């Protein structure tokens, strides 16, 4: 593989790993370096939280997964001749495993032949623009996707620009929430509290996370432009807002490490953290301040497996898939919703 074909994400991902994990080497009493009071194990806090259960490959070989060090939580399955490759924004990484399992049950001929990635939508596009190649640490690989899934607006954009084959197919919606440590020790009651001096936050990075746009809209609804500026400018500059380096799934890790007391995420992510038993809670954002996301998918232009691309996109609208989504707080998309 030539250098020109290799996506230059290695420094980003490596730096992110150091930022998330390297900073844990502070004095603490829970046995692995986090400053909070959570006494759980590394495998509870750090991905992959399902201990490999999300991997749809049937033959896994040597299991070399070390939380904090070697875990590759965003890459699932085998790159050895997959029959369906899905690039999906990581906003529902936790739902992908049951979705894939349900799809395989309906189509047993494809079992064990699905590969999917769950990095932020903007980074997935950058990977596609760099020959579908990605580098993580010391490993570089290339997989051409069959399906791309993200927010409806982004999917529509890339259909119009020829990267995806239309139409964009919307299937579910999601709402924002304020994620907090269990028990809400900072007594967060609403979005306006996030602008208070001394309130330490972890927030999605606007550089590549689409959710940041919705969060800024909600902050503006709740407290005007001044609140959005306080959270995403003033507090970033003075160190009271930490911006994620890869994805807002880092938010619960930072909260459990005691590095922040609140952060805005999708409601589904807070529900997932609670489902797996992590000490995470959430503070609901009223409808008048919330900003709804619409998720959509489309086949990639010249997809290697157009039959399976179409089947997956149609599956996302099925009662089976919608039931899985609803377990995490998503709502079925209806026209004009």
Describe this structure in words.
This protein is of the alpha+beta class. The relative contact order is 0.17. It is built from ten helices and 14 strands. The radius of gyration is 19 Å and the shape is globular. Helix content is 33%, strand content 20%. The longest helix has 27 residues, at 211-237. The strands form four sheets. A seven-stranded mixed beta sheet has the order 1-3-2-6-13-7-14. A three-stranded antiparallel beta sheet has the order 11-8-12. The chain has a two-stranded antiparallel ribbon with strand order 4-5. It has two domains: 3-173 and 295-332, Periplasmic binding protein-like II (D-Maltodextrin-Binding Protein, domain 2), CATH 3.40.190.10; 176-284, Periplasmic binding protein-like II (D-Maltodextrin-Binding Protein, domain 2), CATH 3.40.190.10. It has helices at 10-22, 42-45, 93-106, 121-129, 152-160, 211-237, 250-256, 267-275, 306-315, 319-326; strands at 75-76, 84-88, 114-117, 133-136, 139-142, 147-151, 164-174, 176-181, 201-203, 241-243, 263-266, 280-284, 293-300, 331-332. Keywords: Signal.
Stretches with pLDDT under 50, minimum 5 residues: 1-39
Could you say what the CATH architecture of the largest domain is? Answer: 3-Layer(aba) Sandwich
For the record, what is the CATH homologous superfamily label of the largest domain?
Answer: Periplasmic binding protein-like II
What best-fitting shape do the alpha-carbon axes yield? Answer: globular
How large is the share of residues in beta strands? 15-25%
